[in-house]
Amino acid sequence: xxxxxxxxxxxxxxxxxxxxxxxxxxxxxxxxxxxxxxxxxxxxxxxxxxxxxxxxxxxxxxxxxxxxxxxxxxxxxxxxxxxxxxxxxxxxxxxxxxxxxxxxxxxxxxxxxxxxxxxxxxxxxxxxxxxxxxxxxxxxxxxxxxxxxxxxxxxxxxxxxxxxxxxxxxxxxxxxxxxxxxxxxxxxxxxxxxxxxxxxxxxxxxxxxxxxxxxxxxxxxxxxxxxxxxxxxxxxxxxxxxxxxxxxxxxxxxxxxxxxxxxxxxxxx
Length: 269
Known about the structure:
The radius of gyration is 18 Å and the shape is globular. Helix 4 crosses helix 5, helix 8 (111-133) packs antiparallel against helix 14 and helix 10 (169-179) crosses helix 11 (184-193). The chain has 14 helices and no strands. The protein is mostly helical and 269 residues long. 75% of the residues lie in helices and 0% in strands. It has helices at 3-18, 23-34, 43-59, 61-71, 78-89, 91-99, 101-107, 111-133, 149-161, 169-179, 184-193, 196-208, 219-246, 250-268.
């Protein structure tokens, strides 16, 4: 992988991480189009995902600071409640990462898996958008911070399933939250904040475990991909917040269905 290929893939990651169209799936498609062979490690993917996590921190910096201030008051308040629910949501993806990492990595070389998962993403987006449009499908706001413990866990299950390339993480978590009755604004913020610790933790493990040093991707492509993913991620994150609250998800569902069908046709023929 050279620097300009890394820039393109970083741009793909940054724009698609927050849009419900699967960043990992589009990275796999981008690799295929650019002729970049998937390396034996996932260091580049971890680098660009870390960049988009930092983009999330920049966009939600005020909310994050408020959560930390509340936590440091050392009492059970709204901020502590929210952080504990984020912690609960991370349990499923932690289990997948600890016990099924090799199985998940095997999926990254299959465009057939990507195509099928994009179609699944489209289905989730379509039905969740219809559920969110129905007043009877939303909660009455009785849950603290707009999310119950059960909803937090179910959204966490969605994040764990979204490790499959082509199954959008933001799309899956937002869809599961909407199907559980959460409001659009509440589930969007929760979806973006809940990914911070898992991705940063994965990056830390790669650094301390020596995976970065043994990576087949050079420093310059890694740096170029990281910078591009961060800058485009900040723009995409702000855009997605506005889109989910105002425009809905049906157009993303249509895009994922079309993209997934094309990928399946290409991979099977």
